[in-house]
Amino acid sequence: MKIIGVGCGPGMLTEEAIGAIRTATLIYGSSRAIALAEDHIGPDTAVHPIPDYKALHTLPQDAVVLSTGDPMLAGLGYLEGEVIPGISSLQVAAARLHLPLVGISVVDAHGKKHSQPIHEAGEELRRGKIVFLLADPGLDLGNLRAVLGSLSGTSRVYLCQDLGYPLETIRELVPSELSGTLPGLFSLVLLPSPANRSNNE
Prior knowledge:
Order of helices and strands: EHEHEEEHEHEHEEEH
Strand content: 15-25%
CATH topology of the largest domain: Methyltransferase, Cobalt-precorrin-4 Transmethylase, Domain 2
Helix content: 25-40%
Oligomer: single chain
Number of domains: 2
Strand order of the largest sheet: 3-2-4-1-5
Number of helices: 6
CATH architecture of the largest domain: 2-Layer Sandwich
Number of strands: 10
């Protein structure tokens, strides 16, 4: 089995990934992952939407499984088989904002109960780390605002939506603007306050 990262948006497939997709005879993926790879899928390749994510380990050994972004960033890299990396939303956000990856802590709140990831994000900010928060439509931004309010100083917040797509937007918010929920998939980049950065130095 091969698990291939198709990138977080159009045009972000690596040459290695494209080669593996072109020679695949059996492909599984989400509708978004298939759409990102479709220009490189051969006409004789059998393509199937993933019917049950819990049963992916039962797929045939010659299957290619497409994972959006990079399989090792909250993706399908836990499956046994060869992993071909892709360009992740983390890499794109860091590049857009000129942030070094070595200073970023990843917190995954996608498809999970959100209280623990939000708490974890606050702890990482207290340590002076930049936080990349993978979110989903159920994330209550008001709860995040409360955590940020408990920190010393003011944190900077960047809302990243549709990274890698033509309608990509990245905008800076002040913590007081965080409320309610947002539709679709998005991520947040949280920069620690100067006070917490100095405490970490």
